[in-house]
Amino acid sequence: VQGTGGSSAVSKCSAAARGYFQDRFLRLLAGRRRRRAPLIHRGYYIRARAVDHCVQDFLLKTQSLPRTQILSLGAGFDSLYFRLKDMGLLHHTVVYEVDFPNVACQKATLIKGMKELSALVGDTGEEGLGAITFSGEDYKLLGVDLSELSELERILEEAGLNNEIPTLFIAEVVLTYMENSRSDALIQWAAEHFPQACFLLYEQVHPEDPFGQVMQQHFRQLNTALHSLAQYPDCEAQQRRFLGKGWTECSVMDMNEFFTCCIPEDEQQRMQTLEPFDEYEEWHLKCSHYFVLAASKGMEPSWTPLLPSMTVPRRAGPVGMAGSVPAAVCARLSGIPGLRRYGHHSVLVKPNVILTTGGFGEEDGQHCRMRNFQVLSKQAGYWEAVCVTQNIPDKRWGERLYHTVSCLSDTLALVVGGRTSPSSTGLGMLWLKFPKTCDASGPDDVAVELVSVEPTAEAALLRWRHSTTEITFIGEQYLFVYGGRSALEPVLGDWYFLHTPELSYTVIAVEGPVPESRHSHSACSWKGGVVIAGGLGAAEQPLGSVFLLREFGHGFQWQTIETHPPLVPRYSHTAHVHEGKLLLVGGVWFHASSVPGVTVIDLMTGLCLDYVINVEHLEWPLMLHNHSSIFLPNEKELLVIGGGGNCFSFGTHLNPEPVSLSLSSILISH
């Protein structure tokens, strides 16, 4: 547990160094320096913002009072005191920090040994006495185990903590490491002994969904199990916990809600452009698995730092589920590393033959961008991995993620876009050519050829997280490339018509309301046009709109499909159309009470039904984002291939094998 404080200080230090927030004291306290990944920076940014937001609100609300105090529980190597002191916010506030004795001693030694720190505290020169390892005028550092409540109480009293003045308690990922009986006792003790008090809690939530399972497993492996989660699995349970332990007011938000509601738009944009970034799914999942809670009692005026700005709609209640869809692993497809990947693309090249290309995954025991192609073929009712086209002969493939593949015939497919790293420009188009002779055992030889197109079209196609859909116009076949993002534009809303097979760039008139820019949406051919659903919009907010682009007069027209109940906004899902019904599979949404399963939208009536995926027969967490899926209409079966991602600092999770979803019960033919 003590190790977690050190590693979080290093992560905060790395985020500060990249400009996520201002803190010149972290580097003095963190010791070792390491550059963390952008996803980690964002995670520590939102944590720092949430704590600062609440602390500064407390200081603002109490600034006219003669004296206040802050008690930081499990403070570790945090720089809070030094930041507040440096900003001139501690005129009448004393800060008490508590941590394990050896952590407090290390920190006291650091402070005494560094002019920049000791000058701010104004070291009283006294040697630390017993548990009080450092004592300044407005700063006391105490070494005591938080789970020993009577000892804690005795040492706080000795250090001068005053029960009668307004007190802010801070517990930033601390209480969850304690046994629940002990953390509950601490929460209740604070409410009972301090007539005017506020409590700020930041920790994890939602242990049972796939991301939550990976998160729990990570902490168990570190030997720092998260004890709160079993008893307090969601925000509502935490709120009830505080209200039941003597606190009279309590508000709570997960970090997606906090980011949307409590951080001004210009600051959101500043943060989003600090580093090249393309891990939206993991960022939003991380944010739905952490919350900030503000409880208070006896405060006049009342302390409510988590009131959302009125412009943002509060999240609705849990998503109502119309039924469930059973998931089963595919016999004979376990243990094939080439199927463990995300950000890839799978396509049916002919009946019962699936080609999967690109993405990030596992090759030769290493995590890397995937060079190998994987072919699945169905024989005698079973899917088999029949061949891997080893090592595409040259660099033309480009080891790409988030590209599209469109089959134009049973010997020809077109790859559009994709990227290597998020800071690189997108990749151009490629032909994949299969031999005519390939039988059910699949194409054992795939030739890769660069596509030469006119420069205007080429530049337009340097994008990723876009869609490429086959459409028909005046009896001619076209590919419709829409949306996505590029190295320069975080989100695109433009489109291109490519006449097949020669891929000439064609201008066709389009009227109607233009959909807002998006990436990571879904697009399906339907009645010669295309149905676009969901996606991630300009402010990195999921979208719930569904649009139809259909042939109209001498061109096309955008039409909005109204869904009821309204489609829960989502992105990073896959989609298929079957008999006038749009099937959305998985994805990421902000409704933390459940994960997206299969949603069925009747395109004629707009009726929208959500189904949960029953995973009781799977022995591992099924992460349904950055996956691919193939719909087999005869069997009414969905084959989900790959999926997963980099779960914050908890490790990379790749779905280990393809999964079959049986839709026969929900697709009753009329």
Automatic annotation (TrEMBL):
* Reactions catalysed according to its record: 7-[(3S)-(3-amino-3-methoxycarbonyl)propyl]wyosine(37) in tRNA(Phe) + S-adenosyl-L-methionine + CO2 = wybutosine(37) in tRNA(Phe) + S-adenosyl-L-homocysteine + 2 H(+); 7-[(3S)-3-amino-3-carboxypropyl]wyosine(37) in tRNA(Phe) + S-adenosyl-L-methionine = 7-[(3S)-(3-amino-3-methoxycarbonyl)propyl]wyosine(37) in tRNA(Phe) + S-adenosyl-L-homocysteine
Any Pfam family matching the protein: Kelch_KLHDC2_KLHL20_DRC7
Q: What does this protein do?
A: Probable S-adenosyl-L-methionine-dependent methyltransferase that acts as a component of the wybutosine biosynthesis pathway. Wybutosine is a hyper modified guanosine with a tricyclic base found at the 3'-position adjacent to the anticodon of eukaryotic phenylalanine tRNA. May methylate the carboxyl group of leucine residues to form alpha-leucine ester residues.
Which family is it part of?
Belongs to the methyltransferase superfamily. LCMT family.
* Name under which the protein is recorded: tRNA wybutosine-synthesizing protein 4
| Organism expressing this protein natively | Sterrhoptilus dennistouni
Q: Name one GO molecular function term.
A: tRNA methyltransferase activity
InterPro entries reported in the protein's UniProt record: Gal_Oxase/kelch_b-propeller, Kelch-typ_b-propeller, Ppm1/Ppm2/Tcmp, SAM-dependent_MTases_sf
Which leading EC class covers this enzyme?
transferase
Q: Which gene encodes it?
A: Lcmt2
Q: In terms of domain of life, where is this protein from?
A: Eukaryota
